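Q: What does the assembly look like in three dimensions?
Context provided by user:
Components: two
Sequences:
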Amino acid sequence: MKMKKMVKKMAALAICSTLVLAACGEKEKAAGGTAASGADPNAKTSISWLNILHTASPPTDTIIKKIEEKTNAEVKFSWIPDASKEERINTSLASDSLADIVTLTILDNSSVRNALKSGMFWEVEPYLDEFPNLAKISEDTRRSASIAGKLYGIPFQKDLARNGVVIRKDWLDKVGLPVPKTMDELMEVAKAFTEKDPDGNGKNDTTGFMDRSDLVYGAFKTLGSYMGVPNYWKVSEDGKMTPEFDTEEYVKAMDYMKKLYDNGYINQDFAVTAKTDQQQKFAQGKAGIYVGALFDSKNLKNMAKGVQDNMELVLVNNMTPTGSESERHIWAGNNGIGGLLSFPKSEVKDEAELKRVLKFVNDLMDDDMYALMTYGIKDVHYKVDENDAATIINQDLWQQEVQPFASSRPNETGYKIHDSDPLKAESDKLIKENANYAVLNPAYSLESETYSTQGSELQKIITDATYKYILGKIDLNGFKDAVENWKKSGGSKIISEYEAAYQEAKK
Amino acid sequence: MKDSSTAAVNMNMKTAKKERSKRTRLESLKRNKLLYLMIFPGVLYFIIFKYLPMGGLVIAFQDYQPYQGIMGSPWVGFKHFIRLFTEPTFFMLLSNTLILFALNIVIFFPLPIILALMLNEVRHKLFKNAVQTIIYIPHFMSWVIIVSITYVFLTVDGGVFNEMLAALGLPKISFLTSPEWLRTVYIGQVIWKELGWSTIIYLAAITVVDTQLYEAAEMDGAGRLRKTWHVTLPAIRPVIITLLILKIGSTLDLGFEHMYLLLNSLNREVAEIFDTYIYTAGLKNGQLSFSTTVGLFKGLVGLILVMLSNRLAKKFGEDGVY
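A: Here is the predicted structure of the complete assembly.
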């Protein structure tokens, strides 16, 4: 009898504890949906924002307070470090723990794409024209950022093509070479920087290039682009799609990299070098050529302060195979779309709420908000002259309080205020110029079921083979085998699905 | 007639026995109710955090989409299993995982035993303690730190080790990007990090060995080596077997963080293991169903290994873990 009682007690206890746990879950869910509903789009509201952080630590409250003041909203940021965005975004999607605004930068990730297509987020296109800044988003941008013809968020508008070559001008002068214009001249410079002791310390301790383990944002794609490699996909007149790695130009680009590697003109461990190491080593004067975003030059120069004080940099964006202007190409990263600001239906419950959040995003695109999120607070973080040239006056404070917001700006182009730093101004100019020669990815907004599910897996085959070819572990036949393997494992399906989608889109 | 009656008697005896055992079990339950109550939180923990989540494994048989949930996602049967077993990566994953597992067992496992025996022979107390403390330390460092230290030592561009090779006039070796060095680097790091820590249990086991046995062995004229071989080792044998079985069960899990940091495009053919694959396929590329399938398969391999080793242990007259 006593035993029975015991069992009953235990059962009761078990039930109680499950109830408590369940209650916990409930509460969390309730706290998620915060945005207050109301018909007035200007009403004070609270907005949560799941956002990507590109700096080491999240910002302090200073700028958030200003943003809140100007937008009449209470903003709560949840920051996701850029390095772990894939798993964090995917787990957030999987567990439905989102926010009113979700920054999605990895639109080609299969689960993100599926989530968008499934109708988890609001389709915003019908509302855009109600808001002055959002209405200004061009038709091209809207189309590029659409998935299966529908726009599931406000696109981040970025510059089309930001990459280029950064070279040590003082080293060029030392070895007596002009600023290179062709790929061969660039090779000459790399050779001279490696062999002619450009830093003059009497030791053979420099290389031409300093690259990192990134075939896209590192040197390979940009140099390839100068040599005529298509931007991921090439589409012929009759609508045939060819992946970039199935072209002659791609092989030529690999050969170029291979030559750099074999001759020691590039850091030998570039395949395992991280971006921070790359930049630090460049700043320490271990190499003289950096390929990446042109505005990195400002950063490199800042990092070199006190280490390589005589560093002078020259930016090059007009590299071609033979030097003729007509051959100029530069790949456009994501066709100028930095991602989407999306609004999940589970958090933004109705149209009125959606409009309030859209108003908030619209306000972020105002001139003064751009200045705030780029340079900070006037006379605290920066000063500005009569030509709207801004100079950061407190670098440390700016890095801590303002810099993290740079990647949260819905629009980065077309503002009057600009950086007074000559390198930054120069890179802005060249990036603008790049847009005229930008090569878009024709498949960017096309749909392929196979690419969505297996694309990133398949890409690994090509990435691995490219590295192996450059490092001489496989020959051309080995690389061709890898391409065949890619096709067999699903690549052919991707090609035919894209071709079908391309025809569909042309109609 | 006789047969059936004996059978009936047998039956009766069996049921009686059963009843008795039932009764005794109930009685023992009653007698030890406080003890049983004490395991209750533990059992609850296992049910909530280990058994209930296992229900999620059903998504291996679905095309799971988070917003549709388990109830709404379409069932696809063995689609993901077929994909796993027909993909060429499968054999690469299986062999890489098993080879690293074997290296862990064959090379790493005996080392702490040897080290513990050696430490046991050290007579100078202070020296022994100092050595023990120093070799524990790496255990408390995270893999990120250890892999970073290795990077600084082994990189071709100014790595300490390669500079030494160069100074000796030898060619530099790209340890970090060549598939043939990966396993050496891997096992070297495991040894460096975990060796000292793993000796603790053996050292504890050695201290309880009956000193009379040593005295008896000495009477028989055994030297230090003989004593170690014939007294210490047999005495800690059950501990060794238990640890071996536990190790086999957990080794398939050990690799992730460590391997993920070592993995790059050039050594993937030997470095990609189940754990890293599950992570990239599932969390980074969002193929939740497929990676669940991979995880389920890995779990099965681990279970089989544990059961085999347990049976083997029992065959050799040891206790096993269950």
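Follow-up: Chain A has 19 helices and 16 strands.
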